[in-house]
Design goal:
Order of helices and strands of chain B: HHHEHEHEHEHEEHHHEE
CATH architecture of the largest domain in chain A: Alpha-Beta Complex
Structural class of chain B: alpha/beta
Largest sheet of chain A: 5 strands, antiparallel
Number of domains of chain B: 1
Helix content of chain A: 25-40%
Strand order of the largest sheet of chain A: 1-2-5-4-12
Distance between the termini of chain A: 60 Å
Largest interface: A-B, 19 and 15 residues
Number of helices of chain B: 10
CATH superfamily of chain B: NAD(P)-binding Rossmann-like Domain
Helix content of chain B: 25-40%
Strand order of the largest sheet of chain B: 3-2-1-4-5-6-7-8
Shape of chain B: globular
CATH class of the largest domain in chain A: Alpha Beta
CATH architecture of chain B: 3-Layer(aba) Sandwich
Number of strands of chain B: 8
Number of helices of chain A: 22
Shape of chain A: globular
Oligomer: heterodimer
CATH topology of chain B: Rossmann fold
Number of domains of chain A: 5
Chain lengths: ~725, ~270
Amino acid sequence: MGFYDIPDSLEKDIADYEALTAEFTDGKINKAKMKAARVPMGVYEQRKDGTYMVRARIAGGDISPLQLKGLVAIAQKYTSKPFHLTTRQELQFHDIALADTHKIMKELREIGLSTRGGGGNTVRNITGSFDEGIDAQEAFSVSPYIRALTGRMIAEPDSWVLPRKFKIAFSGSSRDTALAALNDLGFIAKKNEKGEKGFMVYIAGGMGTKPAIGTLLYEFAPHTEVYNITRAAKQLFDMHGNRKNKHAARLRFVLYRLGKDEFIKLFEKILAEVRDKKHPVLQLKGLKPPDKGYVMIPVFLGDLSFEIAGKIAGIAAKYGEETIRLTPGQNIMFRNLPEKDAHIISDELAKTGVINEDSAIFDSAVVCAGAATCRLGICLSRGLIKAAKEKWEEKRSMLDKTGDVIIRISGCPNTCGQHMIADIGFYGAAKRHEGRLAPAYYVMAGGVLGAGKTKFARQKGVIFARNAPDFLLELLEHAQGNRKEGESFAGYIEREGGKKIDQLLEKYNAPKQTAAVDIYTDWHAEKEFSLADRMEGECSAGVFDLIDYDFTAAENSLAKGDAEGAVAAASRALLITKGLEAKTGEEAVRLFNENFIGKHMPADYAGVAADFLSHAAISPERALEFLKEVKKLYNSMDNSLRFPEIAAAGPGVGAEKTEFRDFRGVKCPMNFVKTKLVLEGMKAGEKLEILLDDGEPIENVPASLKNEGHEILNMDKRDSFWSVLIKKGG
Amino acid sequence: MSLTDSQVERYSRQIILKDVGGIGQEKLLASKVLIIGAGGLGSPAALYLAAAGVGTIGIADGDNVDLSNLQRQIIHFTGDIGVSKAESAMKKMQGINPDVKVNIYRERICADNAAGIIQDYDFIIDGTDNFPAKFLINDACVLAKKPFSHAGILRFDGQAMTYTPGNACYRCVFPAIPPKGVIPTCSQAGILGPVAGILGTIQAAEALKYIINKGSLLTNRLLIMNAFDMEFRTVTFKRNLKCPVCGENPAITELTDYEQPACDISSR
């Protein structure tokens, strides 16, 4: 009954997942192993231990009224929390018990939906434009491609074991409302001079760390090439993506590493191989052109109540199968309606309070889940937009000239809230104020969308979270008064809004701790801001910002001749990786000494810590050396925020380069085969570190390597897996 | 190194072998092997070489598939009857492994075409069923300095040897074509299917070993097997310096089509 084909393998995948959850509940497998299995099945643990989110994949955001009805029925059985709509046009269930997650998967399967690839290092939900089918500039309808490609992708086993997530989007016109240029792979429909269908193809775009606008791969690729191009991009990513550091793993990092020319050459080579295999082209199911009538239903914060969902499903059922689309703006588009009926339905929805024109700018803001439920979150992004809406409700200032402005908020530097392309955007960070951490946001402005025109918003500065709503309202009021007729918001920012933002940042950036405004507590937070409980080997780039901040502080102290201050700041920098937080310099040095020195850093440095704590003098040279050593340690940190242990390192290691491969999740004997292939490319005496799963892999692979004449220098158990250090034999 | 992930997986069981590895696999993928005859010997050889990822395989056969072939020529199926053997074999090889490029020669090997066909290949497998062809292949390979694997089969018996330049050739052991009728053909005397399978498979193994340059080939040795009593033995021999084709003063310097001389049994 779904719009995309569910592969037969899903049934077994769910059964395997169910068996694992049972083993996990019985304590037979650990958390890490469970996590590795559940995330690719679209199940994330929420910030509160033991509660889970389940994400259903909805190709292009299209669901039928019957499916929506089914979703409501399923959700009501397992949770009281509303649905959450995502910017990738998915639908999430929240507050689910782990024991119920597989039940939801089974029931979703029955209504033609899958959760597989909802998370993890997989091919994620394929997205499309909200206005697909009605955009006057559209070359042709892309829905059939999204659906057919989804069916193909989710049936291919290699879609689930990529180096990192892999995102694909389709836009129907050069307005690029699906952000094709900001996905790993993006297709923008166009017709050539002969009127043939095809796509402009962008590759290796993305927001997040080191963002990039996609590289234009083809000005025009025939539409029959969609599968081959996708297959080739996926293969290229699989072979060349960085599996060691997940913060430098997305496809764009391969492009950074190889350079554009080399990357494209490699792509073409793989594409030629793919073409040789003569894969069948996508089987498109023709859709009849939709009626142009539609009603946009803003869903505040993407939170969709069962009641409203049920209502929409009920009305939509009267108008046919193809009538509901979850949009990338986290709203619902009620579509494919006879044009004459659209405004009647719209009025009716307004009467029942489903649509509220006045607060549309807040209701249609794009906001990620934030630190309330997301373990990566730093700030409560949803709290910020709620606070801004509340402030606006007190004043009710006219904002009708900003109706088209899209506010986008992310709770951390990951771009789930798409702040990179916002008219006005925010992303969460932490800022130190008088030695304590306070929630803060970086302010972004002036993003532009469109094929060949896409431009990231510019980072304007940082503001304490507590001051952000006032800042936002004052900026919107200024725009209301000063934006010219027909001027784009980016144009306004360019002309004078940017300067206004600078002024406002200055105005709001002198925090005064008062009884009314507690800058150390985030909006709608239950307790004082802290990052201590969010670390669990998980991490977002926000942590790196903080570490860098401390290193900069240490350098500044040294420049001022304050050696003690430098030692304190350097000591503080890495504490966060272990979930430790120090309120004073002394506490920082003490914690660092206990947790790092002698363990990850040579014991010689204990003297510096001891002198600091006993208030003995520290020379600037010693402080500088100390700082350098901490930085060196930081550079050796792995993607799980772990540091090499001194004891395991042994003499001489560190000076020479050790190759690294992560073969976790690779079964016997492929793990051995892959290790062998890496060793073949190395010289005798060089070292290779590999990660292997516990059980069969660790029992077999090292023995096989010894048989081939290689030396096993070290085997080190970490959680559920092993690190094995190999020296290549002669 | 450019093995794709699916190649690594496909060939994993031979990459695991210490003597193959990724390097050996790359050599196989870059190699070219010609199989002359898509019959009892050529069938298993072709299937194994395709499966192993020999990058280019030539297959030469001028016949069409006949119902009587199917008892031992396992690359051909009932539905292939009447189809060119070379084409039928190509279809099966590509079905096993799309990595493999297959060249087909729908012709019988003869003096005019032999040198031209073999020149593009690194190793040749003689899977023919008659003496004129076997002698022609030997001479062509010796003259072109191409290594090849010989095999012959009859009833329950089989034999195989491998020639590489500088070592003994087939003519060093068997200087001339035996007269007609002295040695019966398979169609006269019969052949047990697995015997063809065993020998053809041995030929495939020789080809693979030659390409990866590991192990000992059947050079200067003749492997003789009998499936009736299931015995294998090897007989060693030396290069014959008086060999008419590879000897020091060779009489044969160009290829000619051989006729099997008529047997003169009546006069004995």
